[in-house]
Design goal:
Distance between the termini: 88 Å
CATH superfamily of the largest domain: Cupredoxins -  blue copper proteins
Largest sheet: 5 strands, mixed
Strand order of the largest sheet: 3-2-1-5-8
CATH class of the largest domain: Mainly Beta
Number of domains: 2
Number of strands: 12
Number of helices: 7
Structural class: alpha+beta
Strand content: 15-25%
CATH topology of the largest domain: Immunoglobulin-like
Length: about 325
């Protein structure tokens, strides 16, 4: 059996390559700046050691230009590295609009994944090579952290909140997934794998994976079973906000605030409906906290997101307007 200790994880994405170049270049800069200092410390300690014949009578004149340059140039160089590192970090929070969304639920001690088509995985995530993938993540219990060394990405996964992370793995292979946040007694067992497949093989894998329907259709069934359709659909007798076209739209609230109806807003409206009440409506929706799991919340959110924009009413014919 050939076992070895890799000194550096493989780079499985363009982002990982850029991070590696940043680390290598910054390390070279630090060596360039600090090596002369340490070399001169050793040289001076030998030359001016006690008992040495070195001349100590004349103090060399100062050089303002040299001393200023020694401070300003390293500062500007490190500032440039800081700006580049900040851009890399901020880029992880700006997923491309056409990214494939995969939902992630962390739980002691496993990772649960659900694909847009409803395919489910535990501790294994299959993704297509060269495809932008956005992860919508939440925790069912404590704080976890999603860490893939080969992709150079890490994001905390929090209970009661959605966090997001995206990547584009362009190198097929199997890569380690770790939880980098101590999450309990069996934290070390919370491991998994990300399998990057060529697009054709990924399509074949989707066909083999079992599914009970896509997330939106599963969310629709759950929406009806919970009785939500009795209030939020057009034919309902209870006056409640329409959910058609809600996602991504600025939503006025009863306290004069305006929020964007994103994943977190929809989730909070299900679990704590009286916190952000839509303008013009009464706080009469019951809470579903403790009645739906994190998996079910993701399905309900997917269903609301799938509802298309509001359709403009067709104009009345001339004879009807008389």
């Amino acid at each position: 059996m050939n076992t070895y200790l890799p000194l550096w994880p493989v780079a499985a994405s363009a982002h990982a390559v850029r991070v590696d170049w940043l680390i290598a270049a910054f390390t070279a800069l630090m060596v360039l700046l600090t090596a002369p200092v340490f070399i001169l410390i050793v040289a001076f300690s030998i030359k001016y050691r006690r008992g040495s014949p070195a001349d100590r009578t004349a103090r060399p004149a100062g050089n303002v230009v040299l001393e200023t340059s020694w401070a300003v140039i390293p500062f500007l160089l490190t500032l440039a590295f800081f700006a580049y590192a900040a851009l890399l970090y901020l880029d992880l929070g700006r997923p491309p609009a056409d990214s494939m969304v995969i939902d992630v639920v962390a739980k002691q001690w496993m990772w649960k994944f659900e694909h847009p088509g409803g395919q489910r995985e535990i501790n294994d995530l299959h993704v297509p090579a060269g495809q932008d993938v956005r992860l919508t993540m939440t925790s069912q219990d404590v704080i976890h952290s999603f860490f893939v060394p080969a992709l150079r990405i890490k994001q905390d996964v929090l209970p009661g909140r959605y966090t997001s992370l995206w990547f584009n793995a362009d190198r097929p292979g199997v890569y380690d997934l770790r939880c980098s946040q101590f999450c309990g007694m069996d934290h070390s067992r919370m491991v998994g794998r990300i399998t990057v497949l060529p697009p054709g093989e990924y399509a074949a894998w989707l066909g083999r994976a079992g599914t009970a329907g896509d997330l939106a259709s599963q969310g629709k069934a759950l929406f009806d079973n919970l009785g939500c359709s009795g209030c939020h659909e057009a034919q309902s007798t209870v006056r409640a906000p329409s959910l058609v076209g809600l996602f991504g739209r600025p939503t006025p609230l009863s306290d004069k605030r305006v929020v964007v109806a994103d994943d977190q807003y929809i989730r909070d409206s299900i679990l704590d409906p009286n916190r952000d009440v839509a303008a013009g409506y009464q706080p009469q929706m019951p809470t579903y906290a403790g009645q739906v799991s994190e998996d079910e919340l993701l399905k309900l959110v997917a269903y609301v997101k799938s509802l298309g924009p509001l359709q403009a009413e067709a104009p009345l014919p001339p004879e009807a307007r008389r």
